[in-house]
Amino acid sequence: MNVQEYIASGILEQYVLGILSERENAEVLRNATNYPEIRAEINALENALMQYAQANAVPLREGLTEEILNTLDQLGTTQASDNPTNRATANNSSWLPVLLGALLLGAIGLAFYFYQQRNKVVEQLSTTETTLSSQKEDCDKLEQTVTDLANKLNILRTAGNQTTMMAKEGSETIAFVHANSNTQIAYLDAGQLPTPPEGKQYQLWYIADGAPQSMGVFELSDDFIEVEFVETAKVFAISLEDAGGSPVPTDIQFVGAV
Description:
- The protein is of the alpha+beta class.
- It has helices at residues 3-8, 11-17, 22-34, 36-55, 64-79, 87-94, 96-157; strands at residues 161-167, 174-180, 185-189, 200-207, 213-218, 225-227, 235-242, 252-257.
- The chain has a 4-stranded antiparallel beta sheet, with helices on one face. A 4-stranded antiparallel beta sheet has the order 5-4-7-8, with no helix packed on it.
- β4 and β5 (213-218) form a beta hairpin.
- α5 (64-79) packs across α6.
- The protein starts with a helix and ends with a strand.
């Protein structure tokens, strides 16, 4: 059982207001016995309702008590004229239920108002939590983007780095190979390439002194892709091949001289 969801469902407020069925009341009592958090929430709701009723109670106007007692005396005299000893019984049967009913209606009204206000606060808190969560996700994404850009900048600034641009005639799309002779590490920057058709993959090649040599197929990524460092490479090229690659390039898309 998810206790927090049960508390947030509103059933405890209905229990405190006394508007649940006998079966539902029994269920709440059973859960309150098994889960201290539910019992604590019920106590808090009852205390809050009591404080609210006390804080909003309307003081009796001066002289009202005397007027009520006089009215009761008159009612008692009329209804118990044959038997004065029944005066208390007559009073209880006439005015006490009315008074108790009025008090009960007032308490229910206050409790319902409190219940509505509580639901509004819960809804506002939920909306605020959702907004904060969304903002946090945006901040996390921005932070990751800044970190990625800083890492790329460090690679480009490292001494010994040499960048080769690969382009395609008639297209503004370009790709790069960043090879560092000091660190003997190379990276492919192919984030601008268009998504290949289904069943196709891009494959990277280099040419030193002879036929093109495969450097493997790769998936598109906004990050730099680490590839084999080839010190003797004079040309880099990217071809579009069937998934899994080809032993020789069949469809050269981008090419650039070192």
